[in-house]
């Protein structure tokens, strides 16, 4: 989330954070909340399913903190370290730690894909995940951490669109408003950071 990256970039990198950045960061959080699960915000009764979703939201916030930390580390290393090195070490740690994490969290069996479609899905996850890490690592070397994090928020909108196209997930009105807010706040941050008088 850009709000965490903005804070960390100010503390650890000394990047200038303006009031406008904070405004768009908070605005984007509001949009994310609307897209994620609006009924959690507006429901009168909290069901067991909602509690599970709230737990998932908490885990996602922790993931956002970790991701913001990654952005800061990559930016701190700068261009002195080739961006593919970041991707390589992420893969190595994933190979080592993923089985351990699966065992700790209750996964005791190794599952192999049984059909071509399953292989296609797993290979697709790996391929596009690799591309994402490559572009994130390189992009963060070339721009400010806060700007890079803001632009990555568009992944929420793309997921939103892909859900409609490929999964027949029809969004609610609140989710539509949230997507518009995310796009608006992201464009606002990009404009603020790229306007010559503000760089």
TrEMBL record:
Residues 56-190 form the EamA domain. The keyword Membrane applies. Pfam families: EamA. It is a multi-pass membrane protein. SUPFAM superfamilies: Multidrug resistance efflux transporter EmrE (SSF103481). It is found in: Membrane. Its main location: membrane. Keywords: Membrane, Transmembrane, Transmembrane helix. The keyword Transmembrane applies. The chain crosses the membrane at residues 20-42, 54-74, 86-105, 117-135, 147-167, 173-191. Signal peptide: none annotated. GO terms for cellular component: membrane. This is EamA domain-containing protein. It comes from Rhodosorus marinus.
């Amino acid at each position: 989330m850009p709000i965490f990256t903005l804070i960390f970039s100010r503390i650890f990198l000394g990047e200038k954070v303006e009031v406008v950045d904070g405004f768009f960061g908070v605005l984007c959080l509001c949009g994310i909340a609307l897209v994620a699960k609006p009924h959690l915000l507006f429901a009168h009764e909290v069901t067991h399913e909602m509690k599970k979703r709230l737990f998932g939201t908490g885990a996602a916030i922790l993931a956002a903190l970790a991701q913001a930390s990654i952005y800061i580390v990559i930016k701190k290393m700068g261009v002195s370290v080739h961006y593919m090195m970041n991707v390589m070490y992420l893969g190595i740690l994933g190979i080592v730690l993923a089985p351990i994490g699966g065992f700790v969290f209750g996964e005791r069996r190794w599952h192999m894909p049984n059909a071509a479609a399953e292989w296609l899905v797993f290979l697709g996850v790996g391929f596009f995940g690799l591309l994402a890490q490559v572009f994130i690592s390189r992009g963060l070397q070339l721009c400010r951490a806060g700007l890079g994090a803001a632009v990555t928020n568009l992944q929420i909108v793309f997921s939103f669109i892909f859900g409609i196209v490929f999964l027949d997930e029809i969004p609610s009105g609140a989710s539509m408003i949230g997507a518009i807010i995310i796009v608006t706040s992201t464009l606002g941050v990009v404009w603020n950071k790229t306007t010559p008088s503000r760089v």
